Amino acid sequence: MSGSLSITSAIVDPALLDLPWNRPLDTWPQENIAALPKGISRHLVRFVYLSGYVIAIKETSPELARREYEMLRTLQRMDVPCVDPIAVITNRTDDDGEPLEAVLITRHLKFSLPYRALYSQTLRPDTATRLIDALAVLLVRLHMIGFFWGDVSLSNTLFRRDAGAFSAYLVDAETGKLYDGLSNGQRENDLEIARVNIAGELLDLAAGGRTDEALDPMAVSDGIVAAYRTLWTELTGSESFASSERWRINKRVERLNDLGFDIEELAIKTDDSGTRVRIQPKVVDAGHHSRRLLRLTGLDSQENQARRLLNDLDSYAATFHRGEADEEMVAHEWLATVFEPVVRAIPRELKGRLEPAEMFHQMLEHRWYLSQNESRDVPLAEAVGSYIDNILRHRRDEATIIGPPTGTFTGPTDVLDEDDWRSKV
Ligand SMILES: Nc1ncnc2c1ncn2[C@@H]1O[C@H](COP(=O)(O)OP(=O)(O)O)[C@@H](O)[C@H]1O
Ligand SMILES: [Mg+2]
Predict the structure, then answer these.
(1) Of the N and C termini of the chain, which has fewer Cβ atoms inside 10 Å?
(2) Which atom of ligand 1 is nearest to the CA of 40?
(3) How many A from CA of 311 to the centre of ligand 2?
(4) Which of 339, 330, 323 is nearest to 384 (CA)?
(5) How is residue 392 annotated by DSSP?
(6) pLDDT tens digits for 253-286?
(7) Which ligand places an atom closest to the C-alpha of 39?
(8) Which atom of ligand 1 is nearest to the CA of 38?
(9) What is the CB < 6 Å shell around ligand 1?
(10) Domain limits of the chain?
(11) Radius of gyration of the chain (CA)
């Protein structure tokens, strides 16, 4: 390799240095490349195997790479769901000393899928609506911290399954800007960009025969506006009611919690006569259930998965401890006697099919379905066995998927190691 590479990275994985940086990304040998589904992009993005995990490499200008790297780091620090930046590499040259483009390296987000790879035949209206709802939640969260995205689209978002719904992650921060707070005009601007981009993406799918006949691209893309506004109002709007209706304060808090948000502050004001109360939630933060589950069990999951797991945990507590025992203690017991045995029962070759929390959720659904069908309480062990044989075996791997989203799957699917690469360096 001629010249000297310049690598900016919080922690450098030495394996990065072995990659063929002296060649343009589009000529990298096939053995380095992970054929995973990818969204549509301006720049060349390719997935590459490193020791035990996959990275996404984007060729772009040094300025843009650095800017996006810093932005993603900031967003990560603010707990926004987005891809994890690993490094920026500049000063690349080929063997003749000719300059090559800079790259931004992010970690491939495990179990995430671009919207085009989320379904196998045609996109159905209800799936599309769930995608839009997830994107609306992400956009609201971004706007609450003052982030103007500038290029909201399905292609710039990754989706993870979340107990029947989806959760959305920001993947492309290139056009984003952080402000102290956004004006209504800025928010509306982003929302309009979202609507137009989504309409274009869905029309494009429709033109390729990849959408269900019942799907109306305009109606679905308009849906982002409605979903966003409802959520925004619920999270930030003030409410006024008679003092005699003070229970509404708790109701509001509960509603926000149900939506997955926590309130850091609730401003409560009474008018001079003391007959009316006005409340205004101040700072709200998403991930209420996943934080509770993490605190109690150490399990890291998506919001709806956490809600399902907590339901199971709470009913376990009610059944075996009549809700009297210490919450932490019961959680520990539930983890050891319910959750972990289920996950351990999954055969090794099937472990990459879905995230453990998603499997557990699906198994609970399956058990409910079996019990309904057979009008009896199906024991956990039986439900797990039936779930593995009748459901899980027939799914494709989602830890990382190999092959085109709609084609047949070639070659062995690679299940990534749970170990975080950072713990190895
Ligand atoms: N870390 C990552 N994990 C998974 N997919 C990624 C990652 N980074 C990029 N991609 C995929 O590559 C596509 C293009 O990336 P993006 O940053 O949007 O490039 P561009 O700036 O050229 O639009 C995305 O739609 C996504 O599917
Ligand atoms: Mg993009």
Answers:
(1) C
(2) 25
(3) 37
(4) 339
(5) G
(6) 888 888 888 887 888 888 888 889 888 887 667 8
(7) 1
(8) 27
(9) 38-39, 41-43, 45, 56, 58, 83, 106-109, 112, 114, 155-156, 158, 171-172, 174
(10) 6-108, 113-236, 239-286, 287-345, 347-425
(11) 24
**pLDDT: is 418 or 315 the higher one?**
315
Lookup: tokens for 207: 């033109």
Question: Separation of 13 CA from ligand 2 center, angstroms?
Answer: 25
Question: pTM of the entire structure?
Answer: 0.85
Phi-psi domain of 53 (left: phi exceeds 0; alpha: psi -120 through 50; beta: other): beta
Could you tell me the distance, in angstroms and rounded to a whole number, from the CA of residue 38 to the centre of ligand 1?
Answer: 7
Residue 3 is predicted with a pLDDT of 63
- Of 118, 114, 158, give the one whose Cα is nearest residue 135: 158
Q: Count how many residues are written for the chain.
A: 425
SS3 36: coil
CATH code for the structural domain at 6-108 = 3.30.200
**Residue given tokens 């030495």 in the structure block:** 14
**What confidence tens digit (pLDDT) does each residue in 125-156 have?**
999 999 999 999 999 999 999 999 999 999 99
Please tell me the residue having the least CA distance from ligand 1 atom 8. Answer: 56
Architecture of domain 113-236: Orthogonal Bundle (1.10)
Tokens linked to 96: 């003749």
Question: What separation in Å is there between the alpha carbon of 418 and the centre of ligand 1?
Answer: 22
